[in-house]
Amino acid sequence: MYFHDKRLQYPVQVTTPDPLFARQLQQAIGGIEGEIRVCLQYFFQAWGARAKDHKFRDMLLHTATEEIGHIEMLATAVALNLQNAPLTLQETAAQANPVVNAVMGGERPRHMVEGMLHQHLLSSGLAAMPVNSDGIPFDCSHIYASGNLAADMYANVTAEATGRTLAVRLYNAAHDPGMKDMLSFLIARDTMHQQQWLAAIEEMGGPAVLPIPDSFDQSLEKQEFSYVYMGTEASGMSPPEGRFNTGPSIDGKGTFSTMQSIPMGAEPMLGPARDGSGAQRKQMDDPSAP
Amino acid sequence: MYFHDKRLQYPVQVTTPDPLFARQLQQAIGGIEGEIRVCLQYFFQAWGARAKDHKFRDMLLHTATEEIGHIEMLATAVALNLQNAPLTLQETAAQANPVVNAVMGGERPRHMVEGMLHQHLLSSGLAAMPVNSDGIPFDCSHIYASGNLAADMYANVTAEATGRTLAVRLYNAAHDPGMKDMLSFLIARDTMHQQQWLAAIEEMGGPAVLPIPDSFDQSLEKQEFSYVYMGTEASGMSPPEGRFNTGPSIDGKGTFSTMQSIPMGAEPMLGPARDGSGAQRKQMDDPSAP
Amino acid sequence: MYFHDKRLQYPVQVTTPDPLFARQLQQAIGGIEGEIRVCLQYFFQAWGARAKDHKFRDMLLHTATEEIGHIEMLATAVALNLQNAPLTLQETAAQANPVVNAVMGGERPRHMVEGMLHQHLLSSGLAAMPVNSDGIPFDCSHIYASGNLAADMYANVTAEATGRTLAVRLYNAAHDPGMKDMLSFLIARDTMHQQQWLAAIEEMGGPAVLPIPDSFDQSLEKQEFSYVYMGTEASGMSPPEGRFNTGPSIDGKGTFSTMQSIPMGAEPMLGPARDGSGAQRKQMDDPSAP
Amino acid sequence: MYFHDKRLQYPVQVTTPDPLFARQLQQAIGGIEGEIRVCLQYFFQAWGARAKDHKFRDMLLHTATEEIGHIEMLATAVALNLQNAPLTLQETAAQANPVVNAVMGGERPRHMVEGMLHQHLLSSGLAAMPVNSDGIPFDCSHIYASGNLAADMYANVTAEATGRTLAVRLYNAAHDPGMKDMLSFLIARDTMHQQQWLAAIEEMGGPAVLPIPDSFDQSLEKQEFSYVYMGTEASGMSPPEGRFNTGPSIDGKGTFSTMQSIPMGAEPMLGPARDGSGAQRKQMDDPSAP
Amino acid sequence: MYFHDKRLQYPVQVTTPDPLFARQLQQAIGGIEGEIRVCLQYFFQAWGARAKDHKFRDMLLHTATEEIGHIEMLATAVALNLQNAPLTLQETAAQANPVVNAVMGGERPRHMVEGMLHQHLLSSGLAAMPVNSDGIPFDCSHIYASGNLAADMYANVTAEATGRTLAVRLYNAAHDPGMKDMLSFLIARDTMHQQQWLAAIEEMGGPAVLPIPDSFDQSLEKQEFSYVYMGTEASGMSPPEGRFNTGPSIDGKGTFSTMQSIPMGAEPMLGPARDGSGAQRKQMDDPSAP
Amino acid sequence: MYFHDKRLQYPVQVTTPDPLFARQLQQAIGGIEGEIRVCLQYFFQAWGARAKDHKFRDMLLHTATEEIGHIEMLATAVALNLQNAPLTLQETAAQANPVVNAVMGGERPRHMVEGMLHQHLLSSGLAAMPVNSDGIPFDCSHIYASGNLAADMYANVTAEATGRTLAVRLYNAAHDPGMKDMLSFLIARDTMHQQQWLAAIEEMGGPAVLPIPDSFDQSLEKQEFSYVYMGTEASGMSPPEGRFNTGPSIDGKGTFSTMQSIPMGAEPMLGPARDGSGAQRKQMDDPSAP
Questions:
Q1: pTM, whole model, 2 decimals?
Q2: For residue E269, which phi and psi values (nearest 5 degrees)?
Q3: What is the DSSP letter of D137?
Q4: Nearest CA of chain F to the CA of C105: how many Å?
Q5: B172/D136 touch (CB, cutoff 8 Å), yes or no
Q6: For B280, nearest residue in chain E (alpha carbons)
Q7: Distance CA B288, CA B272 (A)
Q8: E110 vs E122: CA distance, rounded Å
Q9: Nearest CA-CA partner of E30 in A121, C132, C40
Q10: Which of A266, C129, D192, E256 has the smallest number of CB atoms closer than 10 Å to its CB?
Q11: Rounded Cα–Cα distance for residues A20 and F110 (Å)
Q12: Count of CB contacts below 8 A, B vs F?
């Protein structure tokens, strides 16, 4: 179960509110690289973790709980950046408040509305929403929790790698010192979380976790295709050479090679449609039937 | 640009069609772990790959092109498994065709309809659809192509790890020898593809790709939090010990440590709602105003 | 604006309620081939119809309004079919009510729950929902209203062709005489609506509406590719011959021919990633920079 | 920021695991009436609450934090119910494990798979997912946080009213005493939460919060239509009489009355399509132009 | 069944077309607070209303039918506002038509395109779509019809409270007198509809409808938690005091109190993963097995 | 199975990169009228085509394969248009690079960011995504493959009619000669594809394919309603006259006529809610029960 403290994990301050930056921050809340995703992903992985020892469950719970606080920081940052957003379409620059002018350089507030996420103005009353920077709501199909802890750790590395890439892009786009400071903290946490999930893979055995899942008897797979890079260039030209098709495989269980793809199967034959299946008569066995 | 051959990459045969297995195979077509996802993911990563050398673009194109053929194999398998599915709800076992009986063991076809993906019967005319095993259409927000090739390679490892986990589960559930054979091929290809993307990370420099993106100057992040595992247990009890909070970090640039989370920020203060923002009067500065 | 009459457009009666058939009927309500789709599609086409004469707007409004009544009929049919659905998982056949037994042939009600749309039981209290037979909510991206009336008429033919195909499949699956009767009416209306939209195309000029949109000056398109069927078989083998690559084109403005696809463009060159774009250093111009 | 305790808020025990009930419980996790929804809804309302006093923000944070623990309880219950689910399609009853038999009464495990959420077996490795009982992922467009606290309180009453209705249906469907006990706790919490949000409306002023938002000057609305029930029966027959069209209005600011709807506007005239807008030539001003 | 009249329920006039306002109006059509939602919500509640007396069904049908006319008014308003939207990206202000200039104040039409919903230009041919102001299509999971009429009435109050809040925001943003007039009518209708659903709750018994559903025997819920506000502050500090935790409960069946949340359950124990479930070997009972 | 060639089907060149046009091109990639849709639609129709002769399957495969190359061309065009997009919000026009200035005419880059698809900057690193011009990901429910080849051909005509309409709008909006050239090729291919699917209908028998499906015995439909245009005007005024309600029907099997809609059914009677179904007590048979 869970507890809260009213204070934020790290300070969030905005000197020059900017509704366009509020929009960009939404990607870090409700984007697929965002914090709702990692928060729920780590929770669902923890709550469904099956294993004799509970270390992974425990490790996941700590970090999942930390991530709620990150959503909270970003939601606060969005609300602060929307504080002075224009509410009408026809205000002139002269009528606009000074803070709007600071960001807009004297242009008409209408321009600022053009760049806003319209739901910020119309649906949330100038507050954060669980959507991305183009207004798409987060959808929980992005919570990856496969029941295989090694696959999940790689999903987590991915989430933190795209998450830190996003945080870096936001840092580069930002102009407010408070926002840069907040992002420098979140970037550091993403650094750690990348490390943490890779360390977990190491703790599980490193390359020995491969191929994932390691509980399937490899003698049952068609092993002649298990370490072969297949080229599909129509001209038959060889694919580029690289670590991915030369030398021992990463799991140490094979040797990489290359082959040109060729059809090993036949042309598929589905045969005629059945009576009563709603097809056209011509698709059926006896096209002349009523 | 692209070319095709009418034949399949690998043989697809079904001896005992089973509409319930057709439904399960859908997960490998339109599930988030499925083949539409990897196919389009590798294509979009290739088409957007920015770099001086084109090796990664080329490598991705070969594998993306191979994956179209995997969707094709699975779509064929679904259609073959649906060949004799019951079309009505009230047929008796006696009326049902022999192949249905082979799978059902003499029970009423109605049971088989109960287990089917209903869209197979009603929407596709007994053929594959780009949906998962519960009928949810694939949605392209799952095409991860971040513009950062290292992040993308981890996304690809994840896709192939969850993909092989799914293929193994389907292999275990399957009862038809043709289906087991087809899956043993797809499992082998997933083995290779896991290896391939990990090899690509090695080719990019291995741990040197970390933290992702490696183009952000780490002196700008709050480095005192970059290698710290944060505990959130309310009792203050220490988190479990593991590779993820002891020893050198995986990127070799820090040393893991542990600390208990504490609020470093203040309670957020958003202040009153603005006039004209659609809030309740009581949320505003002057609640007595009209 | 709109009016209603409490009575249904056509009688809806259910003698033997069947929750599995209730589930199948959902496809005709909230499926992409269903009635919510055509209803809203015709309304949005009407409300946005731009033209000097209002005939098409008027024609669309009549049919859109009729379709509300079809959703109503189907929603009523779903509710009637759910009337006696089992509410628990462990009732025995003996405890179950007689109507359940009539459909189930003495088996345990648990089987019937297994086949139900679970949201019928848990979310709607045994009534219709705006979802398809696998529970996916209808989403208005399927309302096709392009601003081009000819394109819209073809979209409508498609909707009624897939709609009638679905209605026929439901008719074939149904066992209740009341349901067969209701569907025989809806099938007839789909027959008419297919005719109606094709007649509208004829009224607009038949083949002269082509290519759609007809307001684009064809001399601006690369006309050497306007009536050519392109083959993509890797072996270079010719594509099948048919009406689609022989003889005069359907619009009478060209002659069909066939050619093998070849690359006319170059390999795309995106060049290195920019500094500050969140890519890996190796994707950039100067990989050695910090 | 947030903290956790490894223990559950309330005991969760399952004596007879039942994968069909696991599926039904999913509605309470990822359904629109479920716990992810209320949890994130209360958080986003709290994080965006604008007002001079912070009481509502604080009140929301406590309950939002409690709700994380409810998702956790339900996720645990789902995993426990899936513990012994069949993994294959062809196991016979004799091969099946005893617990499966306890629920299935000796029937083939295939039947149990037919009733399962297929993603439980194929995607999550027999654990909970953030989806509803038909497998649809939760999508954050259902997080209602309007920036108007009175509107939000009614949204919360709605969420807890549909949530308790769902919990009651699950209680009625359940057969395991541990599950009934867990649900009796969640039902009690839903009782409280309904009360709590209604009490919050009372604290804001009760009927004085109406009409929502109360910060819009009612003299600007067309007040002759503000308390009139409009009938749309084509026959002109009067609508039913009730509290909703007789007596003083609930907000005390008007008197209910009834009128038959009539068109007060004209037929809309959009005029011809513009050149270059992609319409058909016939929709344009000069249909004979090229 | 249903009928129409070509004329609008209320006049819709636009003097200065503004494509940015067209975009904002979309929220009132396809947003979750919009008119498609209430229209279909009231219809599905009516069509599924189970009760001995039909008053609620009848009441709902009248208002649902009225709402179709509201979508029609708004769709007309969007089309009129898009009448002169720029079709190209490079037109200069001098080339632009005078009406565009009236809104833009002499700036380049490109700016206007930047603020537009792009689908208005590219997909609908300058007409309304069933999407919100950021282009997200309406999705019918927002049609709340729970089978419990009291819960549904609260859902309707919520819909009209958020709907009126939105209409007020649009009124404040609007600059065209015709648009302000139309919105003043819609705001009045939202006032009435809020009243109407609250009156329906009063007619059902007022507080006696609580807790919803009132058909569940409250002695079966854990009543010691039914009227308790639970605090989750980690420091143990008491939650704020308010009507929601002091005095008699709103339903008159209990007395509010406050307690600090504590774990009453144990740490969940899922145990090892099963063989054949696709987990890692280390998650299983016998990690050394092949 | 499939092969590729690194070169593009047709040249793609961009002289003046424009991130706003990049955004508009996205509609042709991930919009419902776009190339991912037709590509996957033709593939799924081919892979599921049931018929004695394989001509349609073959025909579909060639064109599906061609369409992959169209997505590739457009993805390349998007990336090229994003090449110089501004990465920050506060750059001045003076700091901006010359190419940005060429498009912006000396205005602040901030304006350009306002018009961008934000995910281009934040999520894809300035590359194409499988989303539409407002950022909505493509979702595979738009892959129409009904199992009825005639219905599918009309779906394909629709896709190419809306697709060409979109391409024409993009051509009109474009300012770069390379983009106009690329679009002139894609428009030509859309011309052909419209023709091709209409030719396929002719090959199937032209009007004889109607009504779709033609395998349903028309004597089973309520034929008195099969060729009747139904008017719904409340005043009883006749609907407009046109080809759609006069003369022989298009399929030659009936004669069009007109009638005013009237209710033929009764008012639906659902009866009271059942005990244990979660309704309010008042909806049940015995409201006084506990």
A1: 0.96
A2: -125, 100
A3: B
A4: 23
A5: no
A6: E165
A7: 14
A8: 15
A9: C40
A10: A266
A11: 9
A12: 165
- CA-nearest of F82, B93, D2 to E233 is D2
Spell out which residues of chain E touch residue B167, defining contact as CB-CB under 8 Å: none
- Chain B: give the shortest CA distance to residue F235, in Å: 38
Q: Determine whether the interchain pair A147/E24 forms a contact, defined as Cβ–Cβ distance below 8 Å.
A: no
Round to whole Å and give the CA distance between B97 and B78. Answer: 19
Best of B33, B164, B168 to disrupt the E interface by mutation (most E CBs within 10 Å)? B168
Look at A278 and C166 and tell me if their CB atoms are within 8 Å: yes
Q: Of the ranges A121-130, A165-174, C99-108, F116-125, which one carries the lowest mean pLDDT score? A: C99-108
Which residue, among B189, A51, A281, has the nearest Cα to F217 in the 3D structure? A281
Rounded to a whole number of angstroms, the distance from the CA of C186 to the nearest CA of chain D is 23
**Distance separating alpha carbons of residues F150 and F155, to the nearest angstrom:** 9
Contact F127 B36 (CB under 8 A): no
The whole-angstrom distance between D210's CA and the closest CA on chain B is 9
Phi and psi at residue D228, to the nearest 5°: -115, 125
Query: Which parts of chain E register pLDDT below 70?
Result: 91-108, 287-290
Segment F284-288 long-range contacts (CB within 8 Å, at least 24 positions apart): F284/E215, F285/E52
The CATH code of the domain at B19-208 is 1.20.1260.10
B282 and D204 within 8 Å at the Cβ level: the answer is yes
Using the beta-carbon criterion (under 8 Å), do C192 and F279 form an inter-chain contact? no
Closest Cβ–Cβ partner in F105, F172, F263 for E87: F172
Q: What is the mean pLDDT of each run of 10 residues along chain A (290 residues)?
A: 97 95 98 98 98 92 98 98 87 61 64 88 97 97 98 98 98 96 98 97 95 97 96 94 95 96 95 93 76
> Across the interface, which of B4, B5, B125 has its CB nearest the CB of F147?
B125
| pLDDT of amino acid B92 | 62
**Structure tokens that stand for B11 in this block:** 């043989």
Cβ within 8 Å, pair B139-F137: yes
Secondary structure (H, E, C), E97-153: CHHHHHHHCCCCHHHHHHHCCHHHHHCCCCCCCCECCCCCECEHHHCCCCCCHHHHH
Check: CB of residue C18 under 8 Å from CB of residue C115: no
CB contact under 8 A, B243 and A213: no
Find where tokens 């409810």 sit. D70
Give every CB contact of residue E284 below 8 A, 6+ residues apart in sequence.
A215, E272, E273, E274, E275
What percentage of chain C carries pLDDT values higher than 70?
92
Roughly how many angstroms between the first and final C-alpha of chain F, as a whole number?
A: 66
Tell me: pLDDT of F47 over 80: yes
Residue B184 Cα, gap to closest chain E Cα (Å): 15
Substitution target in C24, C168, C187, C284 with the highest count of A β-carbons within 10 Å is C168
Domain range list for chain D: 19-208, 218-260
CB within 8 Å: C115 and B117: no
Tokens describing residue F112: 């350009």
**Sole residue written with tokens 């009224």:** C203
On chain A, the residues whose CB falls within 8 A of the CB of F217 are 290
Q: Is the pLDDT assigned to residue B160 strictly greater than 90?
A: yes
Report the range of poorest mean pLDDT among A135-144, C82-91, E74-83, F268-277. C82-91
How close is the nearest chain A Cα to the Cα of B86, in Å? 10
User: HSE-up of D280 (CA within 13 Å, CB side)?
Assistant: 25
pLDDT of residue B158: 98
pLDDT (average), residues C90-108 = 62
Residue E289 has a pLDDT of 54
Contacts B–D by Cβ distance under 8 A? 132
C-alpha pair distances (Å), C236 with each of A265, B69, C262, F196: 19, 19, 10, 20
